[in-house]
Amino acid sequence: MGIACSISLTIYFYHLGVFKDVNSLQQLVGSSPIAGPLIFILIQIIQVVIPIIPGGISLAAGVLIFGPYWGFAYNYLGICIGSLILFLLGRHYGKPLITHLVSDKVYQKYNHWLDDQSRFEKMFALAIFLPVAPDDALCLMASLTNISFKKYSAIIFLAKPASIFMYSWALLQGGSFLSHLLVH
Q1: Alpha helices per DSSP H over the chain
Q2: Where does it live in the cell (predicted)?
Q3: Where are the domains of the chain?
Q4: Residues 154, 38, 18, 90: is their CA dihedral positive or negative?
Q5: pLDDT at residue 183 tops 70
Q6: Residue 147: phi, psi to the nearest 5?
Q7: Sign of the alpha-carbon torsion through 116, 117, 122, 124
Q8: DSSP code of 94?
Q9: Separation of alpha carbons 120 and 124, rounded Å
Q10: Rounded distance, CA 144 to CA 114, Å?
Q11: Is 146 exposed, middle or buried (0-12, 13-18, 19+ CB in 10 A)?
């Protein structure tokens, strides 16, 4: 039932154009002070679980629509919830789901991390902290290890703020720089 609801919402949001156009997203979430943030958080959860759009775009959209503080909070909440769901889906459905959702190139690149549990946890925490790794793929791959849900959750909740902040800041600064160049 939950998967069917998620797929239906994803199709609905896709038809509205919220995954392709920031203006459509802003019209959808910006119209209500209560429903808007909830819809945005839901979109963030969906984009983590079903990677339709690059996370960086939705991160920047959150900050642009809601401002730096609330945008960060809504991004953090949606991405963390999505990451927890992704891990649980990986645990439940196992390697067939993971190899279906993760490209073979990415899977092969990080597969060797799975051989050493202690090393994996350290590398996973570092990758989640830094905004350069394919977080969603690594969250799925973490579900193949014996890392506890509690430890996984702690890594997500403690390491995600830094990467969300750095990624959002870099995108916004880059956008400001480009708009400055285009205007002058």
Answers
A1: 2-16, 22-29, 35-49, 55-66, 68-93, 95-101, 104-111, 117-129, 135-142, 149-183
A2: Cell membrane
A3: 1-182
A4: positive
A5: no
A6: -60, 135
A7: positive
A8: -
A9: 6
A10: 8
A11: exposed
Q: Is the dihedral of CA 109, 110, 111, 113 positive or negative?
A: positive
CA–CA distance, 86 with 40 (Å, rounded to integer): 18
Of 157 and 29, the one with more pLDDT? 157
pTM above 0.90, yes or no: no
Quick: pLDDT tens for 18-68. 556 666 666 666 667 788 899 889 989 988 988 776 677 778 778 878 888
Residue type, 95: K
Joined together, the tokens standing for residue 76 give 């953090």
Closest CA to 98 of 153, 146, 49: 49
Output the pLDDT for position 47.
Answer: 87
